[in-house]
Model the fold of this input.
Amino acid sequence: MTAFFNTFQLYNSLGITMKRLAILLGIALLASLVVSAAGQGTQGIRVFGEGTATVPADTVIISVGVQSNNTNASQAAAENALLLNKTIDALTGAGVQKDEIMPGQSSGISSSHFVSNICRRVNNTTICENTSNASSLLTSSILIRLKTTDQDKVNSVLETAKSRGAMASVMGYSISDKSQAIADARKKAIENSKSNAEDMASAAGVKLGKAIDISDYGYPDISFNEPFGSPVNARGTVSVTSYVAVTYEIL
Done:
């Protein structure tokens, strides 16, 4: 391990980039990467690839929540349930489909405690009084997977919820069918693996053949490109990243 770091420091001092260093290390490990395909003794090299496909979202995820500061927990929950049900009725009346409202609710309690120290002079004597105030806030919320990214429709849902006294905001974007995006990302990952293999083969002075083994590793990463709570001013996008391991022939 020490020898590896010494070698890295030497290469780094000579201005060799990480990509070139990876190629050089790949050459050094080429012998250990030789594999046998289908028992035929085919010489090969195994490399990894990464590819990302970015596609327009077709679904908007909206959070709708209500709050109660009633100190009685049962009454606070009942107040939230009543207000949330009225908000849901208003949303369905405004065109939100029942299957777009995700089942279940999430609840959370936030508490605060304030302490103040008030002093005053009485007959040349300072008298201080401590006062405290505690409060709690129960928040109940639901998620809506709105099957559109039309800005007017999204704004209508947000305003309808707010008009009933609820809080509402866009939490993110999604796609209903991820299969095509995953396929596109995997294709780019394979292309990336071939480019990496060609760099290694060229540096080693050998010729690269066809792919003889391809496999996914890990699960595709799916991420929202719009930050949570962002204003709805444009269609969101979703990025899908695929990772593959590919073995290529060495001719």
Summary: Residues 1-39, 227-234 have pLDDT under 50 and may be disordered.
